User: What shape does this take?
Amino acid sequence: MDHQHDNPTPAGPPLIEIPLTEDLLFGALDIERTEDGLLPHRLPARARAQCDDGQLAMAESQPSGVRLVFRSRATVVELDTLPTKTVYQGAPPRPDGVYDLLVDGHRVGQASASGGMVLSVDMAAGTAETLPGPAGTVRFAGLPEGAKEIALWLPHNETTRLVALRADAPVEPVERTGRRVWLHHGSSISQGSNAASPSSTWPALAASLGGVELVNLGLGGGGLLDSFTARAMRDTPADLLSVKIGINLVNNDLMRLRAFAPAVHGFLDTIREGHPTAPLLVISPLLCPLHENTPGPSVPDFSDLGSGILRFRAAGDPAERAAGKLTLTVIRDELARIVSRRAVDDHRLYYLDGLALYGEADHAELPLPDALHPDAATHRLVGERFAGLAFAPGGPFSTGRPAAEQP
Assistant: This one.
């Protein structure tokens, strides 16, 4: 059963209204109660209060990796939801966000919600406005009989307010013990940009293959070594941690080489305050020919926008590397050096070269459609490669390693 479902509810026995309680939500660091429903956040309120950037606010409120999880004998599940759709002026409409329904770890259904608020973005002018809209319903019927674990993954790229949950049988929360928790931070690629669905982003795929619970702090445009993100990671219980560093620093032309190394050290120091002995993996950027040797910023190329194609180009000058501007090759070299130096004293700190996840040969076979972000097939490739490297025997996240401390 892998159908699209949407609004109208067929006639049948009345469904049970299930209270939307925090113990049903996995993967969110904060839950805001709004007039329109529960709004899951992937950064805590204190962190959000320290940055007024609209891009970060949008990314952290898009619930990548956030899912409703419960045990039930239900064969029908409905969720009323108020999404925020993003529309780019001058471009064709983006597809609606996807909800994945998993039963005992296997996807059995997908749905999209109609309606919702609309965030209208004028990229040329750099402006945006939000327009109101109605809530929609996603419905999943024909689920397998019997007691089971049901996980409803929310769209990774669509801000989502949860209005009401219904099922045709009672539900109970799932114990949050037994499986290790993997806390990951990165850029839009980690958030899932251009993945097919929320359970098929590369971190979600890797977590499934590794048998761990994912908390995904992949933030589109927000992998910037922000101290409030490091503190959020410090304060979040986890057994395994990873940080993917680099592409957004170049995209935004945010800092020079002089600032980069101390910022990485500070970020890792803060994480270690809360997780002194947990495996901590530093991942350098995937291949991105645009910025391998050319600094940022990345700027949109609107030439094919009318036909639905938005590409990016590098606006920096390779000669500016001499003045300390960052490129991906510079960042990989620095990260390898930093981790090597710290690992002398921190024996559970590891480095993974992003080119081992997606490199030259992969780009030749699976190029980046917009020159920055991988497609759905590449998300699968990266997720499988990461799982094979990180969770394999002897890997940094191997179960054969000593149990990590909880913060």
